[in-house]
Amino acid sequence: MAPTYLTGFGCFHPEEIITNATLMQRVDTSEEWILSRTGIRERRRAPADMNTSGLAAKATAAALEDGGWSGQQVELLICATSTPDMLIPGTASFICQQLKIDPVAFDINAACSGFVYGMVVADAMIKSQKLDKVVMVTAEKYTRVTNYDDRASCIFFGDSAGAVLMSPTRPAWGMELLDFDMRNYNEGAHMVTTEIGGYFRQDGAAVKNYALRAFHESATFMLEKHGLEPDDLRAFVGHQANLRVLQTVADTLNVHEKQHWHNVELFGNQGAAGAASTLTSRVVAQRQDFQDGDLFLCTVFGSGFTCGSALMRWVGEAPVPAENPA
User: Fold this and answer.
1) Number of domains making up the chain
2) Does 157 map to a domain?
3) Which residues are catalytic?
């Protein structure tokens, strides 16, 4: 079957910054305590009048511009989120409403694994429905479900969105999706929850053990399946849970710092959007340096427990940068 490509990239982070000092005014904590446990210095918070769909619409608009598509060309829009605008309708419909477009649109929820799971669903839809232009956007407004009186959880979360354009048509430059891995550890479903109308809650110690195991199993499986060593990767992108976990994962996989893309220290845990915003922002900023054949591995972990990996390869020449106006 024809491969699927990522042909446009976009992300969005709100302007408001929540620093560790801000949280220290609310709960009994310190800069040293937060950094030693999470490595997070800042997070972003969306305005009260901007919902998850608003974050997603911003990222989608950026991706459409980046890939040179008009909104009217989009045939399908999938939104991966665990913080929807409301129970019904799907957040995807509100995204389309804001962008004034009318493709088929629906949500999926794989918690923090939504970026990879969403690409799997989009890839399957492209192949089964013979679609040419699909948007997969992941957006989270976790600050809406964060209890800012709970020191153990409020230190983590920020809001963001990331979007990719997906098509079976080979672009002049972009990423080819080579393979996916998906796996669940459903016995842990009760360990990370957000009840309807409630706050995010987790059993942190138990979750960390599952996460480290799942990260290693999925990433190692993908590398071994394709006969790759960690040094063969241009970049590794993990779920932006917290910097300390990511550093442990990178060390276990023998991924060196130059390969390890992360933004959690400045944007916090952004749910499913963390891996998406990391990948898309880095691609936009650095693609002039990519070479045809460069490999990228994205491995994610989320409530459920869900886990998965996407292996991608850069195709084509690097895009020519736009000239600065005189």
Assistant:
1) 2
2) yes
3) 112, 239, 269
